[in-house]
Structures are given as structure tokens and as C-alpha cells.
Amino acid sequence: MEAQQASPDSSSEECTVLETLPGKGTALICSQHKGKVSALYCLACENPVCVDCMNGEHAEHPTDSLENIVDQHLAALQDRVDSAKNRLPQIREAVQCLRDILQQLNSQRSSIEEDIHSSFSELHKTLDTRKSVLLMELEVTYGLKQKVLQAQLDTLLQEEAAINYNCSLTGEALDGGNKAVILQTHKDVGERLSDLASQGLPLQPEENDQLDLMMEIEGLRKSIHNLGTIVTTNAVASQTEVSGDGLEQCVVGQPATVIITTRDKSGGLCKTGNAIISAEVCTPGGSVADGEIVDLKNGTYEFQYTVKKEGNFSLALRLYDQHIKGSPFQLKVTSSPDDSSPTTTAANSPGSRSRQKGVRRGGSLFSTPKKKVNPIEDDLIFRIGTKGRNKGEFTNLQGVAACSEGKILIADSNNQCVQIFSNTGEFHSRFGVRGRSPGQLQRPTGVAVHPNGDIIIADYDNKWVSIFSSEGKYKAKLGSGRLMGPKGVSVDQNGHVIVVDNKACTVFIFQPSGKLVTKFGSRGNGDRQFAGPHFAAVNNNNEIIITDFHNHSVKVFNADGEFLLKFGSNGEGNGQFNAPTGVAVDVNGNIIVADWGNSRIQVFDGSGSFLSYINTAADPLYGPQGLALTSDGHVVVADSGNHCFKVYRYLQ
What we know:
This is Tripartite motif-containing protein 2. GO terms for molecular function: ubiquitin protein ligase activity; zinc ion binding. Keywords: Coiled coil, Metal-binding, Phosphoprotein, Repeat, Transferase, Ubl conjugation, Ubl conjugation pathway, Zinc, Zinc-finger. There is one protein chain. The strands form eleven sheets. Strands 7, 9, 12, 13 and 14 form a five-stranded mixed beta sheet that branches. A five-stranded antiparallel beta sheet has the order 15-16-41-40-39, with no helix packed on it. It is of the alpha+beta class. 22% of the residues lie in helices and 31% in strands.
């Protein structure tokens, strides 16, 4: 019988098959010795063998019971299965993290896409406005010049006609030779001819024909060519490194510094700035030290902080909300340098070079925003903010609230936080962590303050409303499973939470406990319908006022959701809207409305009759969103397109 060709990794010892024997169950049968059971295991060849095999070619090899070896392999396999399964929670956590990042990336893309469309639409609008102004200026200038020249021309033509007429009469008399006619003509026309001959006439042009157009197109074209840029980095927290003396030890009252060096997924150095880094120095009680982050614009960042008391602190450094490698670090703060020596050094770090003097630093998580006061006389008192992600900086700010304690609250949507300021514009605090878990914020768009001091936040992307204490500690959420895209929130006189669901085109009213009181509205253009409603306000009669964005109107309902009245239509005239957004009510029941598309603020009485504008001419609004009345009677508005909020005088 011809032998079967073996595979390259086979051997003659691999000679067992699995068979069922009568009365013996399933066993390994030796193929070399028919009917023999392989009850042993050759340790040298790592194969099952039978007794006959041991008397033959395996005679010199050590063996063990096959059952023992199987038990050992079973235990080893189970250990490996358990080890593999232990990786699953880490994988699931990483998967969720990546999904959150992808969701945020998609959200950022959508937001930036919206910003690009909005910005260029506004540029088109600005260009069209400028075109209209230039054409109007041309017509006015032309009209003035033409009027002067035409008047001069008419005068000269009249004089020419008068001279021709009188000369013609005189010529006829002279040609006739009639002495009586000549005497009469001299009497009637002679003096008139003398006046015409001696009269001063506007013979020199009293205007010129210059009408030129100066358009610096090339500079504008270059500016437009370089307009806007997409900012990002490839930095990841798991590869980013931290160094410096301030990493583990510092002295009370003296600045300590750490250097953050960003790296990509392969460990390569990132060579550009603009990464989103946050830093917190905390005690177990939660207090924060003073400090600031400086972007050195080369992929490295300097965090300098000062601690005012001794003790053990925690330094948390995050890149895109992820802990940087090694974070949080434990800090020991001593009263003098001699109390302990630093365990790390920044001598060889990228940031060990000395700080240049006289360099103006950008904003940071710990810097204080500067208040910009209006130099031109209008209703603007001051503005706060620029585009950014640090304290006093905003990225797509939306909702605004004010409370009786003299504070202004801003829902900083794309920075996933709420920032709090005093009525005079001084920064107070901020809170919020990006995420999709309870207590985290994904896209805060509306904010309100409950009479008990709680802060209520509409989270559009998380599809719920979060409730925080006045100190920013998470307490509860409501509307989960019911809401599709909450935009604005308010509180009525019963303490109920009013939620404007932009996506569902519905207004929900909840108790603070989360119990639904009532809801009203659907998609459409009827009196009780909405098309992308935005914000809500409540007047002294506990009536609910809703801005209906795409229906270009404001609608008023009673506390049970029954329609009372509406006002507004699409347009640019007094009392018209181009997508209303923020709304507030003063003590007299007057309704103040942010007119997003027309970039203005209008004031109406309680019945919807137009009263006036807030004067915003000196520093024009650009897509205003949320709006509120401060406790000292001013109007505060989120100027979303200009990445700031503004406070205006308002006479009630």
C-alpha cells in the first residue's frame, strides 16, 4: 500500500484519531496500532501515544497520563480565554470613546459647515448692501450735479430765446422802414435789448462732469483668497508628554511651570499650535490655583501656575478632554525651596528657554477676559469675548440667562460649557465637561436659572435638559427619551421648566422632578404650530412667549398651552423678522426680541405692537441668539457671529 504524503509540519508521531469504541465512549485511537487507545502523552514529541508506541519508537521518551495533559491544557486555555475577555471592557470603553470623538468630530464639522455658509451668506449680504449704498450714492451725487448743470443750461437757453425773439422784432421794424414802427419798437424793445445785452449770465460751468469709482478690488480679492482656515492638530493625549520642575513640586506663592509637548499617534512631534488643552490644579476639597496656559505655536504649551498655600495637590492636564500621559500628577507644595527638592527637571525640555518679555499672551483657561467699552455713543455698554476655548472666549455661544444675584450665564455651545459673569462683565466661573453621560454636556444651547438657584441647561445633542446647582454640581436630568433637540429653556412662575424642542417643534413643560406637566405644538405654520422654535420667555401673567424661527413670528400662549396671539412676518421693516431667536420680557410686559437674520433687537408691547429698536449701530450684531434682561435692567445678548456677548442700555 502506498504511503500518504505528509504535510511539511507533520510527523509520524501524529498518529491518533478520535473514535467511539463500544463501552468506552469517545477516545483517542492510535492509527498505527489498530484498536489501541492512546492513554499516554509523549512529552518529547508532544503527541498522544498508545502502549505499543511506547514499546517501539517512543520507548526512550518521557510520558505522562493523557488525562493529566488534557486537564493542564484545558486550564491553560481557560486562563487565556479569561485574559482575552478581560480586555473586552477596555475595548468597549475605547469604542465608546472613539464613537464620542467621531460624534463630536461630526458635530464640529456640521457646526463649522454652518458657520462657513453663514459667514459667506453674510458676506454676500454685506456686499449686496454695499452695492446698494454705492448705487444710491451714485444716484444722489449724479442728481446734485445734474440739477446744478441743468438749471444753468435752462437759464442760458431762456436768455438765448429772449435775445433771439427781441432781436427778431427789432429787425422786422428796421427792415420795414416805417418811422412810427421804429419809434414804437425803440420804446417797447430798446430798453429790453439793453438789459439783455448787459445782464450777467452764468457762462462758465457751475459744476463738473467728474464721477469716478474707486474700488480696491485687488486687496479685497487677496483677503478673500486667504479668508478663513480650518484649524486642527494630530495630537493625541496618550503620546503627549509633560515635563518641568512644576510637575511634582512647587513653592507657595512662586510661579511653577510645566511644559506640554504634543505628539501624534506614532509619537512624532506636532509642530503647530491650537490644540485644546485644559489644566486644573486642585486640592481634595476642589479649590483651584491661579494659572494660565500659553500656546508657544510650535506644538508645545507652557502651563504656569501659582499655589497660595502648602499641601498636596492634584494637577490634571487634558488634551481634547483626555488625560495626558501620566495625568493627574501629584504635587507637593512647600513653603520654601529648601523643604524639598524637585524630582524632575525641565533643563532639556522644549520649554526650558527663558520667557521673552513684552510678549502679549493669548487667552487661556485661567486668563481674565478684558471688557471692551464702546467708544461711540449708542446703547452698547460693553462687550465680552472673542473666538476661542478658554475663559471669556466663546465658540458658537447660544443661550443667555440672568439672575437676581447679579450674574449673567452664557451657554457656550461648541465649548460644551456654561460661563458665568457679573453684571459688569467680570468673569466668575465656568463649568461643563464634554460627553454623553449624565452630568456632561455635548451641545448646550439654552440656559435658565430656577428661583431656587439651580441652573437649567438644554443640551441639544444629548436630547435632555440637565440641572446643576448654582456652583455647577450636577443634580439631575429631565426629558430623556421625550426630547429630540431641546434649544431654549425658561422657568414659569410655578417653578415649572419650559423646554423649546427645536427639532420636534414642540414646547414641553416639566416639573423640576422631571414629571411632564403638558406639551403643545407640532410642525407647521398654524397658530399652534412651529417651524424650528428657538427660545422662550414668561411674562408677569405666566404667559409663555416663543420665537418661531422659520415662521418669522413670535407666539404667545397661556400656561396650559392655549394660543393667545402672534405677531411678526418675514421682512426687514419695523415689526418684521428674518428668523427671530432670543426673547425676554420686561417688568411692564414689553417683549424684546433678537432678530437673527436682520442682526438687530426689536422691542414690542405686550400685544405685539412695534415700539422701538435697541441702538446697535456702533458695533453691529452678527446673528444674535439668546437674550435676557439683567438684574440692573440692561439687555444682554449672545452675539454669536462675533463670538461675544454684549450688554445694552434699556429704558423700561
